[in-house]
Design goal:
Layout (H helix, E strand, L loop, with lengths): L3 H5 L3 H21 L10 H20 L4 H24 L1 E3 L2 E6 L4 E2 L2 H16 L14 H16 L3 H18 L3 H22 L2 H11 L10 H12 L11 H4 L11 H34 L3 H25 L17 H19 L5
Antiparallel strand pairs: 1-2, 2-3
């Protein structure tokens, strides 16, 4: 039997925010894909299916006490890490990247659940640390090893965007715990040769081109710089109030690449303008603040770290995607949570929301 206190203390504000953003996202996907010739169900309808699947997963995640995740965190980490290794050996290759694992009836992308699993593993590790003690370089060696394995495997696929997200989420959790400045300096100095090695050996030519085009989009306007240029035109042409629903020229004439996925926010910017973008960013800002509030009100260290990790995951997704479409960051293929089309991204984000709801509902139970 489900404890009545859990139902009484259900966080309707959080789920309401998520559903509101998701509903706006469905309308935006409908507009972005209106000019497509799609065989089968339209993208907007498929997105609705993924939202319903995500809601079912939220119910499942909420029905299990999140404290049990502390006991199985390292087991989950080991399983997903093994799947990442299997992907490199026997994964499905598409468009030059090997990111998917074919299991007969379904294809899975292990790098997506790793975002949640790394949060669980880091929360498990840091849960026993004193609240006021700041981490030394010795304290963070083991977490850095936990992070290094999946980050390198994901980058090897190659999937630079997801690798960056996993690193940023884990780093945010360490900063929340507290790190001495000497340790930060040591990590920074150690990271410099690692970045150089990654540039020379791990990044593909198209990924290097994306970074160089971020610095100078005009160097290849019809090739690798095309994405950024067309996205900036769409965002800028929206003006103050936008061109209106289904009336974005960059969108309907299909100048925008990946306009229903990675560049969905560009479509929204063109159709709803600065005012619409401001409203949407305020919704995301409120969602992030609500997640941090859940972390602050939690009664135990593990739950607080889990809430911070999930909030950081949503925050960095939002920051990188919006920065990417307006030219502040290189194009790395990071979707906007609950807004861009994509089943894997939606499921991962919904599981994260389920964890936040779980922590929020059970704060009154102790």
């Amino acid at each position: 039997m489900l404890d009545r206190r859990l139902i009484t203390n259900f966080d309707w504000t959080l789920i309401g925010l998520v559903l509101l953003i998701s509903a706006i996202g469905v309308l935006n996907i409908y507009s972005a894909s209106a000019s497509y010739k799609v065989i089968g169900a339209p993208y907007a309808l498929k997105q609705c299916y993924w939202i319903l699947t995500g809601l079912v997963l939220i119910v499942i995640v909420c029905s299990v006490d999140y404290h049990l995740l502390e006991d199985v965190a390292y087991w989950f980490y080991g399983v997903v890490l093994a799947l990442l290794v299997v992907v490199l050996v026997a994964g499905k290759t598409s468009m030059g990247a090997t990111r998917w694992l074919h299991l007969g009836f379904i294809n899975i992308q292990p790098s997506e659940p790793m975002k949640i699993v790394i949060i669980m593993a880091f929360a498990r590790f840091f849960a026993g640390f004193p609240v006021l003690r700041k981490l030394t370089i010795r304290d963070i060696l083991y977490p850095l090893l936990l992070l290094g394995g999946p980050a390198l495997l994901i980058m090897k696929q190659p999937d630079l965007g997801t690798a960056i997200l996993v690193i940023l989420v884990a780093s945010s959790m360490m900063l929340y715990v507290g790190v001495r400045w000497t340790a930060l300096v040591s990590v920074f100095l150690t990271a410099l040769p690692v970045f150089y090695l990654g540039w020379q050996r791990y990044l593909r030519d198209y990924q290097k081109a994306r970074i160089l085009n971020f610095l100078d989009p005009e160097r290849d306007p019809l090739g690798s710089g095309y994405h950024i240029i067309q996205s900036e035109i769409a965002v800028g042409s929206g003006g103050l109030s936008g061109k209106g629903f289904l009336h974005g020229t960059q969108t309907q004439l299909r100048f925008l690449p990946e306009q229903h996925t990675d560049f969905a926010f560009s479509v929204f910017s063109e159709e709803w303008g600065f005012i619409g973008c401001l409203v949407m960013l305020c919704l995301y800002f409120f969602l992030i603040l609500w997640g941090l509030q859940i972390a602050g009100r939690c009664n135990d260290r593990f739950g607080s770290l889990m809430a911070v990790g999930v909030t950081a995951m949503l925050f960095w997704h939002m920051v990188i995607n919006v920065g990417m479409v307006i030219g502040l960051f290189p194009v790395v293929g990071v979707p906007l949570p609950f807004f861009s089309y994509g089943g894997t991204s939606m499921v991962t984000s919904m599981v994260g929301v389920g964890i936040l709801l779980n922590v929020s509902m059970r704060r009154f139970m102790f």
